[in-house]
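User: I'm preparing a small set of examples for a lab meeting where we compare how different chains pack in three dimensions. I only have the primary sequence for this one, and I'd like the structure in C-alpha cell form so I can line it up with the others. Please keep the answer compact; I'll paste it straight into my notes.
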Amino acid sequence: MDSQTKKSQQSNNKNPKIIAEIQNIYALLGEGKFKEALEKINDCEKQNPNNENIQFNKVGLLIDAGFGLKDQNVIKRGINAGEKNLQNSKFKKY
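Assistant: Understood. Below is the C-alpha cell output for the 94-residue chain.
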C-alpha cells in the first residue's frame, strides 16, 4: 500500500462528518428512537462500508438498537460484527 492510499484511509477513518453521524446515532438511542437509529446505522454503513469508526461502533449501536426494538436479529448482527472485528487485525488497537 502506498503512502497516499494509507493517508486516504486514515483521513477516511477520522472523517468529522462520520464521527458526528455516529454521535447522532448514539443520541437517537439515548432518546429511545431505536428504529430511526437503526435506519441511520444502515445508511451510514452503506455510504461508508470500509470506515473503521463505523465498523467498530456499529457493534454497540446494533446491540443497543436491537435491545430497544426487542429484535434478536439486530442484536445478532451486532454480535456477528463484533466477532468479525475481533478477527480483523486492523481492530487490535481497539
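A couple of notes for your slides: The CA atoms of residues 1 and 20 lie 28 Å apart. Residues 15-91 form one domain.

User: Perfect, thanks.
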